[in-house]
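I would like you to sit down with the pair of lines that follows and say whether tokens and residues agree.
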Amino acid sequence: MTPQALLADLVALNDLPGAPNARMASYVQAHLARLGVDCAALPGPEGDRVNLFATIGPRDVPGYILSGHMDVVPVEGQVWDSDPFRLRVEDGRLYGRGTTDMKGYLACMLAMVPEFQAMALRRPIHLAFSYDEEIGCRGVGHMIARLPELCAPPLGCIVGEPSNLQPVLSHKGKQAVELRIEGRAAHSSQPDLGMNAIYPAAEILLFIRDLAARLAADGPFDPRFQPAHSTVVAGVVQGGAAVNIIPDQCTIQMEVRSVPGQVPQDITAQVITRLAALPQVRVSHGELSSYPALPPPKDRALADLLESLTGKSALQSVSYGTEAGLFHAAGVPSIICGPGSITRAHRPDEYITEAELQGCCAVLRRLGNHAAG
């Protein structure tokens, strides 16, 4: 099947993060089975979601992982010019949810399998399909933990997030956390009988603001990123039910993005310490998502290979995060390189072009030739 035909099928499978992904996983497994490729289904702890891992070539030789996530972000609240879960072709553009982020890459991976099989690969090419990436890279870690039983230690992992097929070397780490403050409700005419949860929440918000200012002023700094320092922001605040009720609860959702060398959890810990010191209220917190930074490589072998395959110089860093940081943390050299532009991701009328799919297949073909050489 062509990449475009595969992409049409994949777009129609609107498996969303945080939900069962049996339809998407079954489609990928069935496609690979028709080509004679075994595909391991690796259930996550949720019980209704799986990662997938398949190999073309010898398993006992170090090779390369092509990695992409199967889930897509929702379309609620967005106005599309056509059904987002039905591929629309117009003037060389292929419109649909996930076309760029990142089912275009998955379609190219699957479309290239027959060519990989015909190449008599000396080094294997592994196909890795993960779940729940869009809600904090929650699924891929379970697959990474099982890599030792699936393949020899890989030479590298190419995470196909949209980068205009330009290799990307690094990104920041991230942790998102929800902070919860519980007070005591009362009638607003007698506020002394209650404990207003919004007021201590305001203290935490000011602490987060001041912490962000300290990070901007004191660093640490890494000029490869913009901004060149770690950041912390409060993004969502919810509290109160009515103006005449003393609010008994308030929640804050905050996010840290850290430069390589600084762990996001260390920054979050400062906020949690301040939260725990609030008097007269009950507090708790829970992690929403996290992934480590992808630091610039010390060994340029994978970067040099991708530069030769794409004909493009590597980009030092990007502002978005990926599963590459998790592969790197597990000892797998990792790089980002995929078709399409991140500027189209998560937006109405998301699209990828036919030329971008063809370009991605050409890069993967060169990788296959390299692995066969």
Remarks:
- The mean pLDDT is 97.
- The radius of gyration is 23 Å.
- The longest strand covers residues 173-182.
- Residues 3-170+294-372 form a domain with the Aminopeptidase fold (CATH 3.40.630.10).
